[in-house]
Amino acid sequence: MDWLIDLIPLDYTDSVVLIGAVILGVAAGVLGAFAVLRQRSLVGDALSHATLPGVCVAFIATGAKDAATLAVGAAVAGLILLIERTGRIRPDAAIGVVLTGFFSLGIVLLTFLANFNNSSQAGLDTYLFGQAAGLLEQDLFVMGLLCLASLLFVAVAFRPLKAALFDLEFAGSIGLPVRLLELAMTAMLVVAIVIGVRTVGAILMVAMLVVPTVTARQLTGRLWTLLIVSGFVGAAVGSTGALLSNAAELPTGPVIVLVGFAVAVTAVLLAPGRGVVWRAGRVLRDRRRAANEGVLIDLEIALHSGAPPTQEELVTLSGRSTATVRRALRDLDRAGALVRDGDRVHLSESGAAAVHALLARRELWSAWLEHGWRLEIPDAREPDPRDLRATLGDDLTEELIAISGGAGDE
User: Which one in 21, 123, 127, 376 has a CA-CA gap of 20 to 30 Å to 358?
Assistant: First the structure.
């Protein structure tokens, strides 16, 4: 690790903290994704709280505080799987039992060790709230080894893990060892917690398991890509939090979690295609397009009924608000669909073509709603009301038109 520490233009302690935060972010991002996607995020919370008594028991049994020994003790948190698998306790109840029971046991053991006047126990309480500044080079070695081993396992067992992650019954039906795969996913979660609990603490560790996946899920829908993005997001959050905490002289763990929280909220709000703001904008655009199309049809009806209407007459005819009609006419005018003669409105050639195409699409959609069940479609398709022909294809569209007696014939 010396060569890696020397590459970072920071002092020794800050370099160790930065590397540890990056390892934590990568491991928690990739391994935590399996818990989040299985909707078992709270299992990670229970496991992280349960590491505390494991650390204390390992110290009592060995008297050592080296990273490897305490990591083995922390892994006792995997007992939640055994409790949950008994079938006598519901999974949510098992999580509650383990979270509260094991965490309480950990606090009792910490207090016992502190009152025992054993000077070598100093520092065990850092597993509660985290103390990244206390990381040593040997800690980084253990963390890096665990992270590398778990990532290699994910890469090798990706296909069976993917099958078990999304459909346990299917995975079992094709002969995969479902229970073993579930055990492996829980073990990976334990590994991620063991890697990070020293940095952010048992209380905040669940945030590092959830935040990278929540962020990555807003950006991609493919599992392999999600794991990669989640790992990068975790590394970025960890390194940014470590650097900010160093600059502001604040606790590293809470700062890392706050940075992750900000990143996750930003992704949920602004992610392209899935973000709240993005979707809200798309809904508004769809509503505006629908209003414009409605006004265009109203104008076509008015032109067939008599003289070209004014804006006020169009408001009366359509029953829409003045603001809606004014905005729609402005949009249509910009699109070149209108010709104005004083205060009266005509359709241009492109506007007339647009309204005829719109009416044809509506007639075709009505035909689909009424007669679509009669078509022999070879696969499952999601019909698009705005372009049903593109959804069905020319052959099925022509068959639908023939069945409906020419509805929507273009």
Answer: 376
